[in-house]
């Protein structure tokens, strides 16, 4: 299987064995567990465990033919359909969960790993989609650490531009980000400026009542703070940096 696809499946959450079995089924259509285990050199009981996990995740299907169980890879449309069903359930849960979150006006959350940063990015997009986001300022943001994270950010940035309510966006970046390809996507949201010697190991996002710090140590981290006073004060700090920054050429 193409390395790019393998990387994305790993980042999606499939393990190496699941990817090997799934890719083998993609190439060979319908097979029994015995045939898969023999060809891939894995124990039969282990193979059944892998197949059951892939069925639960929506990547393969099981059917019987003459009392023999066969397995086949699902089409991409079928995988996406399964994910859409789960997305619908989560979207219905979201308003209720947000009510619980809002019960505590001051809240600090630590999100770990690439999935944590994706979770934060999706929350930001959800606030914008629900018209609860009026502005978003970025100071010295860091690079996405994985291929899927980068693709996910690009997708959200494109979707931001389609929202009916426009958000006030401003970004301040260190000069070395000037020719970064991802910055072109941010240009679609609003204005970006450059500042020399801007510390950019920690990305800072300021938006309605929130502040978030994104950084990478041994793995990616996102510290999200819900506090109106802190958000207001850092917005004033951002305004000062904005006044001394230069426009991109």
Task: Describe what you observe in this structure.
By secondary structure, this protein is of the alpha+beta class. The chain has 2 domains: 3-78, Winged helix-like DNA-binding domain superfamily/Winged helix DNA-binding domain (Arc Repressor Mutant, subunit A, Orthogonal Bundle), CATH 1.10.10.10; 104-247, Endonuclease Chain A (Endonuclease, Chain A). The radius of gyration is 22 Å and the shape is elongated. It has helices at 3-12, 16-28, 33-40, 44-56, 76-102, 113-129, 147-160, 181-187, 228-244; strands spanning 60-65, 68-73, 107-112, 135-139, 168-174, 191-195, 202-207, 210-216, 220-226, 246-247. The strands form 2 sheets. It has an 8-stranded mixed β-sheet with strand order 3-9-8-7-4-5-6-10, with helices on both faces. A two-stranded antiparallel sheet has the order 1-2. It is built from 9 helices and 10 strands. The mean pLDDT is 82.
Quick description:
It is built from nine helices and ten strands.
N-end to C-end Cα span: 42 Å
Structural class of the helix and strand makeup? alpha+beta
Instruction: Classify the fold: give the CATH topology of the largest domain.
Output: Endonuclease, Chain A
Helix content: 40-55%
Total individual domains = 2
Taking the sheet with the most strands, its summary is: 8 strands, mixed
Total DSSP E strands? 10
The largest sheet has its strands arranged as 3-9-8-7-4-5-6-10
Reading off the top of the CATH hierarchy, the class of the largest domain is best stated as Alpha Beta
What fraction strand? Answer: 15-25%
Categorize the overall geometry: elongated
CATH architecture verdict of the largest domain? 2-Layer Sandwich
Low-confidence stretches: none
Number of helices: 9
Order of helices and strands: HHHHEEHEHEHEHEEEEHE
């Amino acid at each position: 299987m193409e390395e790019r696809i393998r990387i994305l499946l790993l980042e999606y959450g499939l393990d190496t064995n699941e990817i090997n079995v799934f890719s083998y089924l993609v190439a060979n259509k319908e097979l029994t567990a015995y045939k898969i285990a023999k060809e891939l050199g894995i124990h039969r009981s282990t193979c059944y465990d892998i197949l059951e996990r892939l069925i639960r995740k929506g990547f393969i299907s099981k059917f019987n033919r003459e009392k023999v169980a066969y397995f086949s890879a699902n089409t991409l449309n079928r995988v996406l359909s399964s994910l859409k069903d789960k997305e619908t359930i989560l979207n219905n849960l979201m308003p209720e969960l947000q009510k619980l979150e809002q019960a505590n006006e001051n809240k600090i959350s630590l999100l770990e790993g690439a999935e944590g940063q994706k979770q934060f990015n999706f929350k930001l997009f959800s606030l914008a989609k629900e018209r609860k986001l009026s502005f978003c300022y970025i100071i010295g943001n860091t690079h996405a650490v994985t291929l899927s994270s980068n693709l996910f950010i690009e997708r959200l940035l494109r979707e931001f531009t389609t929202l009916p309510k426009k958000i006030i966006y401003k970004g301040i970046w260190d000069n070395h980000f000037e020719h970064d390809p991802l910055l072109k996507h941010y240009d679609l949201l609003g204005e970006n400026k450059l500042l020399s010697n801007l510390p950019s190991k920690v990305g800072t996002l300021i938006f309605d009542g929130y502040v978030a710090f994104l950084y990478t140590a041994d793995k990616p981290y996102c510290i999200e703070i819900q506090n109106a006073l802190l958000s207001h004060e850092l917005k004033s700090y951002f305004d000062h940096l904005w006044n001394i920054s230069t426009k991109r050429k």
